[in-house]
Sequence to fold (429 residues):
Amino acid sequence: MPMKVDVLESTLVAPSEKTPRFGLWLSNLDLAAPRSHTPLVYYYPAPMPGGGEDFFSPHRLRTALARALVLFYPLAGRLGVDDGGRLQVNCNGEGALFVVAGADCAGEDLFGNYEPSPELRRMLVPFAPAGDPCLLAMFQVTFLKCGGVVLGTGIHHGTMDGIGAAHFIQTWTGLARGLSVSEACPSPPFHDRTLLGRRSPPHVDLDHPVYSPAYLTGHPRHFETRLYSVSPKLLADLKSQCAPGVSTYGAIAGHLWRSMCVARGLAPDSDTRLRVTANVRHRLRPQLPRQFCGNAILRDLVTVKVGDVLAQPLGFLADSIRKGLEDIDDAYVRSVIDYLELESGDGGLQAAPGQLMPESDMWVVSWLGMPVYDADFGWGAPRFVAPAQMFGSGTAYVMQRANRDDGIAVLFALEPQYQQHFEDAFYGE
Fold:
C-alpha cells in the first residue's frame, strides 16, 4: 500500500539577525554542478519511553535553523542572475523552507530494505522547481507512526558541495543542542568564490573529457537500487589483494568496477571508465580555506580496458584509481576552470536533459569520512543517512554505517537484468 504523507505546516525561516544583502558571484565549479537540490534523508528512531516529550520539536529546530542561517546566509537567498545574465545567489534573507509532516508508515517500512526513488524523495524531501527565483534550502521533518522521525534535506548544489552542506548541518544540529554559535561553528563558513576565478587570459593545458557534453552520450535506462553491505571481513579481504596502505575507497571502487563489468558482460577489448570525484580544497596552491563553502569538488575519468579490469589483480585497479586522483592538482583545477570558461560562455557546462553515462562506465561517490552521523539535534544520532533518490544507472555511493563496527554500505543503481549477476560477482570473491 502506498505511503501517505500529510503536510501539517510549511513556513519560510529567515535568518534570526540581519545578514549581508548582495549578489554572490558563483564560480565555474558552482555553475558546473547539477542545477538541482541534493535530496538526503536522515532517519532517527523513536526515543526510549519517557525520553521524547519534545522529540524533534519543530519550534526548537526552526529557532536553531534561523540562527544557523545567519552564518550560512546564502542558503536564505534565491538563485538569480547578474546584469550580464550569469547565475548568482541573491543574498536577500528571504529564508529557507521548513515543512512539518506526518506519515502513516513506520521506520522499518522505509529503511528495513531501503531503496531510494523519486516517490520517496517526493514524500520526504520538499520539492521546489529549479527555476528563477529558486529556493536554495528546503527541510522537512516527517513524524512516523512508530514514533521515529525522518529529516529530509534539499540544498541546491549550485550553492555548495557535500562538504559545505555537512558544515551547515553540523552547525544547525549544534545550535539545536544548545551550543553557542562559536561552539557549534568554531570555523565560520567562507563564502567568497573568487579564489576559483579563471586565469587571465584563460588557457586549457589538459584534456577534460568528463566535462564535455559529448561524454554523456548514454540515454535513460530503467534501473533499480540495492543496498549492499560490506562487512569488516570482506573489506579486509579486498584490501589484502591490494598494496599496503590502499584506501578503503580505492579497494571498494575497484571491486565495484570489476563487478559491474562482469554483470554487464562488457567486451574485453573495449574501454571502461570510472568517474571519480576529488575535494580540491587542499590541492590548490595556495590552498582554499578548509571552511570554503562553495563547490570545490572536481570530476575526472580513469580509463582502463575491460580485459584488464577482469584479468588484472584488484591492486591494479586500486592503483589506477589512486594515480587518477593524484593527477587532480592545482594545474588540473585551473585548467578545468578555464575550460569551463571558454567552452560554455557562462562557466557552466550542463548535460542535455536525459543524457547519462554510457553503459560501459560507472561513477562511485565516496561519503567515507563525511560526518553525516554527527547530525545529532539533541535526541541522538541518526540510525541511517542516504540519498533519497538516485539519478542514473551505474551510480554508486560508498557510505559509513552508523556503527562503524558494522563495516560500510554501498548503494548501487543498476539495470534490473544485471542485478543478480552483479551481486554474484560482488560477493563471489
Q: What stands out?
A: The CA atoms of residues 58 and 100 lie 7 Å apart. The two ends are 38 Å apart (CA to CA).
